[in-house]
Queue: 4 jobs
Job 1
Amino acid sequence: MKKLWGWLWRGMAILFVLLLMYQLWIFAHVLWWVKYNPSTSAFMEDRLELMQDKNPDAELQHRWVPYSKISNNLKRALIASEDAKFVDHEGFDWEGIQKAYEKNIKKGKIVAGGSTISQQLAKNLFLTGARSPFRKIEEAAITVMMEAVMDKERIFEIYLNVIEWGDGVFGAEAAAQHYYHTSASQLSAAQAAKLAAMVPNPRYYDKHREARGLQRKTGIIINRMNSSDIP
């Protein structure tokens, strides 16, 4: 029995060291991205693999553009749609999380997430779409890391450049070209609001661009944009 406990403790120690090394690996990437742009993300790589299973020649639509080259209309629309308290919180909107929890309990299923822009970015950069308690814990840990070493403008700049906006469409520039044949810097308020409304379900809205729910949410976002604070 003593030998068994010894092996158990060794196994736990090895697991702890591996987890610590993984966290340090993630933190090293976060530090690098303070100044250097990520060329891809875990979610982008996952989507490309799925697309190439069907078509080996499939490619993602993605081109990085600096924060200054993205329309303030799009920045305000995303803040209004995804995270109204983004410039004020430290990675987590506890009131939003509580409201999402109460809504999910009432509906008896997950209908709201309450994730901030920082949390969404953490998930997109490092994690897959699979839901699990470990993934949520890791998402929270990465969010804390990013908020500790990046300012809000940098977090938002990376977010704007890596989030999904359609089937194989990633980032503001690709989205602007894909839907409106213009650059991210030239997006109007109406165009930006519609792009922001697509974020929760981009592949569906890529194929159903005139969906009634999309039009309704676009109108709500337009009405909220002027009160959005952007970094």
Job 2
Amino acid sequence: MNILKLEDLKVEEIEELLENAIKFKKGSKKIDYNGKKVIANLFFEPSTRTHYSFEMAEYKLGCKTIEFTEETSSIKKGESLYDTVKTFESIGVDAIVIRHREDEYYNKLKNINIPIINAGDGKKDHPSQSLLDLMTIKEEFGKFEGLKVLIIGDIKHSRVAHSNIKVMERLGMEVYTSGPEEFKDEDFKFVNYEEMLPKVDVVMLLRIQFERLEKEMSMTKEKYNNLYGININRVKQMKENAIIMHPAPFNRNVEISDDVVECEKSRIFKQMQNGVFVRMAMIEKALNDNSINN
């Protein structure tokens, strides 16, 4: 089956993915495809965590992988995304992982008959990131219902924010956003950062996506850090058991100060670790469900 956005999955399916990811992490669930499954990773945007944790997940599952490079592909000759993906299907790949700069790129892939896993599209969705965030929260609190989450930063351009807010609210969490007015998204609850900070269980910071800005940010990085970044003084204002999350990569000393990245409340590198196990669960589900829900 395709895994394109979490909206397509029932709550029970999301919970099952998380349970399997936790089992993979604990070692109580083991799968080895013994090289009989081949997955192609097509990344049309730069990526470290998502790209290589998918590759590690594939390795742990015993899959063989094909790494696609746009610069040396026929895309440079004008080949369409559809024809590129259809080529991989034709040569016998069992599933494809795609990250693309275009929103909902998968709408162009209606006649592909192998599973597609969305590794991030434009400013819309990032299902594997949302799942690893949920896994991290589940391990920390043992539940979702009633938790309060504050997402701070470039909400407007963030596929992480858009994916997370939707699924978190479906799971019973209260989600608030904050940051500069220029990064505000009118679809989501916008609150005062300083007032909400001491009341929430999860503080999630977002990278300023300078590459997506149509014009330069209206304030300096230093001013942003002072107004909206998180530093040790703000950490002290948080609830005792509250945690800090960030999808990464992070701009050190902009949205997060150096001395906070690995402080006791930070779960940033745990998120990265959990990403491997979540992606293992996603790959297993995609490969084992023969229905293609284009």
Job 3
Amino acid sequence: MQKKYKVLKENSTKIKYDKGNFKVYRIVALRDFGDVKAGQYGGWIAYEGNLSHEGACWVYDDAVVFGEGKILDDAKVRDRAIVTGLATVCGNSEVTGDARVQDFAVVFNGRISDHAIVANHGIICNSSVRDYAKVLNYANAYNAEISENACVFGKARLDGCTDYTMLCGGRKEYATVKIHGYAMVSEDARVFGNAEICGNAEVGGKARVYTEAFVTDNVKVYNNAKVYTTVTGATRVGGNSKVLPT
């Protein structure tokens, strides 16, 4: 395999992250690939294991990849973004701004931007996390948009692919779950289809929020509750209750 970049051992710097100081090195392209030209300087990595020589993946600007973080396929890390720990960014993903992907997190075909954080064992697939949003613990997001100050954590799952599939022109199109505002989705909760959680709403326990549902304001959905329609105000939906369209 022909190497596509070189680690410049003579061009190093130390960054402070968490409680440690880490030494990283500037990279330079050895050949053309993707939108990168031979001789173009890239960002910073700790060693070659951080950035694959295959595909069009690249670390740009002052972005940093260190620890056992891996950038694979056609993924791109830009601006001042950081990827570290045992995190993997792959597919056509982009990590930009001051975003962080760390620990055991996996981002596949995802967009992580601004000050967003994906950490612990979080999995992002065909989804975006932006602004100050966080995806933590064992939370998974498939076909979802998580933004503003929203937080998805615990073993929560956002799944726009389930319960909402359209066949358009011979291809499948999926809905997008939207979590924004100061909303929280946690524990073993599931949010499906094109449902939307916003405001100061909280969804937890083993609650389920389904296609077309809109949960906002100070609504709390918990236990084994199921929501199929709009819920607003300071409502609490718990137990085994069902909220159905009227």
Job 4
Amino acid sequence: MKVSTIQSELNSLAYHGRGIIIGKSADGKKAVTAYFIMGRSVNSRNRVFVAEGDAMRTKAFDESKMIDPHLIIYYPVRVLGNKTIVTNGDQTDTIYELMDRQMTFEQALRTREFEDDKPNFTPRISGIIRRENDGMNFAMSILKSAEGDDSSCERFTYAYSNPIAGRAKFIHTYNGDGNPLPSFEGEPKTLELPDVDIDALTDLIWTNLNEDNKVSLFVRYIDIASGEAETRIVNKNI
């Protein structure tokens, strides 16, 4: 299995779109997650991340320039008990609400499809972290159109039990720039998680995202034993 550094993977493309990283810290004590957004259009770039309790939402940086909030304004992060949900759209709420009614992560996402932003049909990417019995597991999902056909949805879920310390999985929406944008393909990528604190990791990710296209970044360290969390948010628009 190929294991990439964060630097090399983030620098491999100028445009990843939106990306989710989930893994276990090098010391094995923390669940680590990051979510970033990139943008090409004025509407996509006119955003900031805002903390709201243990959740996080997107917000227009300049309300007067917001063209269409559809697919732009949502909660990327919500917490349900011992579970942290991270996604690139309003499926965060779907997962939260249906899991609260005893459905599984996969079952909740079977009610959703890729985004309706023809011709890109942007994939919906989602992740969930569970802390239990002094351990952690996580899952990732991607919902994408089949070969750009909006009548056919492909759903893939990847589950990781007792993940290896110092490793993370990385999934993103696009395989680069283009028109239409090419969707992510294959399994989530494996990344090395360096033995650093949350500030150093936040700086590492933010510095290596394409300068022209990066918009906002969220990083969270969750103590696996206690559930205590540290969060960092970086916005290009400040």
